[in-house]
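On clarity, I found the account of how folds are encoded harder to follow than it need be. Since the whole study asks how a given chain folds, the encoding of that fold should be made plain. For illustration, here is how one protein appears when written out as sequence plus structure tokens:
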Amino acid sequence: QVQLVESGGGSVQAGGSLRLSCAVSARSFSTIAMGWFRQAPGKEREFVAGISWSGGNTAYADSVKGRFTISRDNAKNTVYLQMNSLKPEDTAVYYCVGWTIPEVITTPPRYWGQGTQVTVSS
């Protein structure tokens, strides 16, 4: 069974930074694409960032390009999301996600974490 556990959320002022981590218990971790989604109050969940099995390919939502960086450490079964220059509109619950194939695709991820709250105040 695949489990995803996020950490690193919290409250920060606009312009600040946070680093989210996602520990994954899956033997197949190093062979699957991983990513992050988020859901703000009253809004639908949206894609934030994705990374291929090797880390060689990444994808970002336009709203976070240049500010967020996704990375992974396959030796530690962990995915990270470095968030810089945070804005109030980044406030949301952030979910770590995993697909069942090596590359990020547009179909919904198979695996989801419980989520971690990120709050950015102005």
Observations:
- The chain has a mean pLDDT of 96.
- The chain is about 0% helix and 50% strand.
- The radius of gyration is 13 Å.
